[in-house]
Amino acid sequence: MNAAQILIADDDREIADLIAIYLLNEGYGVLKAADGREALSMIRSESVQLVILDVMMPEMDGLEVCRAVRADDAVPILMLSAKAEDMDKIMGLMTGADDYMVKPFNPLELVARVKSLLRRSYGLNARLKPGREEDEIQIQSLRINKKTHTVMAEDKHINLTSTEFDILFLLAGHPGQVFSAEAIFEAVWKDKFLESNNTVMVHISNLRDKLEHALDGAKPIQTVWGVGYKIEP
Predict the structure, then answer these.
(1) Where in this chain does the record put each OmpR/PhoB-type domain (predicted)?
(2) What pTM was computed for the model?
(3) pLDDT tens, residue by residue, 33-78
(4) CATH for 5-122, among 3.40.50.1580, 3.40.50.2300, 3.30.1490.100, 3.40.718.10?
(5) What is the torsional sign of CA 174, 177, 183, 185?
(6) Which of 42, 87, 147, 218 is the most buried (most CB within 10 A)?
């Protein structure tokens, strides 16, 4: 299969063009959208494997686009924003973004984040091709398949983002073991954890909401206060 196609949704043409240059140099296909409505339309009509989504855009802002996409699509989303405050980052992650970068950013770091998201989402380095088959995990009433990136609760399909799936697979693959936020972050994001990082907490919250909704209120992920998170067998 061809290289991943990435949508850059940003009304700042200079930033969009700069990102495109770096992605094209890595062999990715690139699409561009200059406002939120155009971005949403392209996500729904084109073959897009990852979205780089600016928060502040005309027509629809990035948060609105992210909410609309997450209603029925788990495509990886890397959100960009000129705002560095923790609450702005948390809002981006709460709407379903997989990762978040603050402008101005280093384009090489952005490319590294893109590669990491594609690896986690599709099991590849830079190209979309089948990865090695993994065993399916069955825990409590959940059936979690690494190869297909699907989660089933009996006959219900639970739509998770790639990050939510990776956190669930990590916890479910080690039943009864408690993982700290630091351990989860470093295992899933493959990056160094910072003390003020709320990323894991936000993704765990989103993941819990989806699981509990599908499981009629059952709570498979437990918090061990002051330590971390676990799933019992």
Answers:
(1) 134-233
(2) 0.72
(3) 999 999 999 999 998 999 999 999 999 999 999 999 998 888 999 9
(4) 3.40.50.2300
(5) positive
(6) 42
